[in-house]
Amino acid sequence: MKNLIEEAAKIKGIVNPALNDIDIDKLFVEQREKTNKMLSNIKMPDAYYEQQRRKAEGK
Amino acid sequence: MMHDSYAEVIENDDDFGRFYFVSTGKKGEIKKIIAFTPSTVDELYQLGFGDVIGDDVDDVDDKVVSDNGDRDKVLATIVVVLYRYTERYPNRWVLFQGSTNSRTRLYRMAITLHHEELSSLFDIYGLLAGDEVIPFQKGAPFTAFLFKKK
Lengths: 59, 150
Known about the structure:
The complex is a heterodimer.
Chain A: H1 4-10, E1 14-15, H2 29-38, H3 46-56
Chain B: E1 10-11, E2 18-25, E3 28-38, E4 44-52, E5 60-61, H1 71-88, E6 93-96, H2 101-113, H3 115-121, E7 122-127, E8 133-135, E9 144-149
Parallel strand pairs in B: 4-6
Antiparallel strand pairs in B: 1-2, 2-3, 3-4, 4-5, 6-9, 7-8, 7-9
């Protein structure tokens, strides 16, 4: 049993460029459509809008 | 405390949004894909997760119940990948929900169980049916979960 940071450090993180070829648009299509529909009226936390404000100001 | 996770996670190198690992258990080896995809909300990405069911790595089923006897290890791997992803993209918010209600309940239980450790690294929110996002609360009927690196 380890903590999360230790577990993350353990990951070998092998890069395989073949994964770049996966067409993300073809993955989890039904789930993404369902989620995007759900997001149409989402009210995000204040921290999100603060982040967006800073982004718009270029900070 | 987290469960052990799978150490050999393969990742892509263009957008760092696709991850692959192999679950090993009582039914043998099952290939798993985790993908982060943009949503219709700026800076909000969806975490998708499923089994590779065909010869092509993008032939994925996110509803299949693998029953490979390593559920906690798989969930721990998803969380570790989420951590790595948000290390790379600290401004991104990541949403995930189960592909079925029972899977969403499973995620809620897992977050509840490990809330103390997870909340030391992430701001964790839950989405209520009324489309309102509030800080994660144990027992609340969330339909999805949002993570943001602290």
